[in-house]
Amino acid sequence: MNAKMNMETLASQGRPVSRTMAESVAMRIQDLRKKAIQDSFQDFCHSGHRLEFVAKVRGVEYIDDAKASNVNSTWFALENMTRPVVWIAGGKAQGVDFASLRALVRKKVKHIVCIGADNSPVLEAFSDLVPGIVQTTDMPAAVQSAYLLAEEGNVVLLSPACPSFDLFESYQDKGMQFKRAVCEL
Questions:
Q1: Which of the listed residues 24, 34, 48, 68 has the most CB atoms within 10 Å of its CB?
Q2: pTM higher than 0.90, yes or no?
């Protein structure tokens, strides 16, 4: 009955009912799309191990970006850093092309802490850009090294740029080990 009255009202106003119904459907779809987009961004921003603040120790922020297991994800993380970075990177980097990160590393990274069984690809890619590169083979050593290198106002960023199945079961395992090591500082 309500729909019939609305159509009669629209018709009496000289508006075509079919056009008005189409406009209503389009507006409803648009609202649903906006809601879906907003929800997906909220999920993205709050997903674990993706640019996740862990702690602030001695004026240094520790950020877990363990999910960044490729160069593009790490590029995004480095691009969004506004303070000097001590970057924890590495893993199974054979065949990984780090070229797109070079300008950002030159601009934003003051030290690199390599973590992996073979750190040579990271060393080859960045040793001419960063004066301080430290090699480690486990997460506690990587976090301890970053702690010693970082100064107040810096960010320690775990953003590996490559898979790390040489030392970790998954990016979640890597992120949890990072968080645990930071909490033990």
A1: 68
A2: no
